[in-house]
Design goal:
Length: 208
């Protein structure tokens, strides 16, 4: 696996653990496009690499949105259910399992209407989970930018090779460097002169 695939798979694993459905879908598409770009590089398919280069712009935009979401920029709230399509109240896996976090459950049976429920509190986190998510997205942006530059370089190399091959007539059905063949009757006369002991007299008779 390439570093791009490993980074995408790592992100996918933690989003699965947190049931973050929107990032899961985005990560899945990203993994598919990365594989497509690698295939295009190995199999000499510039169009596939161009698709990957275009996707990197989308991927960078998506990760910028994730950063804004967790930093609550522009009216966004990290506690909303936007990333779970409003079908669950799950949050980032890091919210309860970050470095140094201690998860505690307190019974709420004494409160009317909340019997058999528990309140979960998380304390002692060395780093708030939203900053971990921001670092994840920032790392993805950095890798995407490197991948975009590399994709543009590979496409330019492939294009130069195709142009140079066209210049020497590699794709032309009638190459520019073909040799003009002599007329058939002229070749016949030259061959006859070489094999006939009385070539000049015979040729004079034929011309008459």
């Amino acid at each position: 696996c390439s570093p791009l695939q490993l980074a995408a798979l790592e992100r996918q694993v933690f989003d699965f653990l947190g049931y973050q459905w929107a990032p899961i879908l985005a990560n899945f598409l990203h993994i598919i496009i990365v594989i497509l770009g690698l295939f295009g590089t190995i199999q000499y398919r510039p169009r596939y690499i161009v698709v990957y280069a275009i996707w990197t712009a989308v991927w960078v935009t998506w990760n910028i949105f994730i950063i804004c979401f967790y930093l609550e920029v522009g009216g966004l709230s990290k506690d909303s259910e936007l990333l779970t399509f409003n079908i669950s109240r799950h949050q980032s896996w890091w919210s309860e399992n970050g470095p140094g976090c201690v998860r505690k459950e307190a019974s709420m049976s004494g409160i009317k209407g909340l019997d058999n429920h528990s309140y979960i509190s998380v304390i002692g986190c060395a780093l708030e989970y939203r900053y971990i998510e921001v670092m994840h997205s920032s790392f993805q942006i950095l890798i995407a930018l490197v991948g975009f530059v590399y994709a543009c370089y590979v496409v330019s190399v492939f294009t130069e090779e195709e142009d140079s091959f066209d210049f020497i007539g590699g794709f032309d059905p009638f190459p520019l460097y073909h040799v003009n063949e002599k007329p058939t009757n002229l070749l016949f006369k030259q061959t006859y002169l070489l094999i006939s002991p009385t070539g000049f007299s015979d040729m004079e008779m034929m011309n008459k």
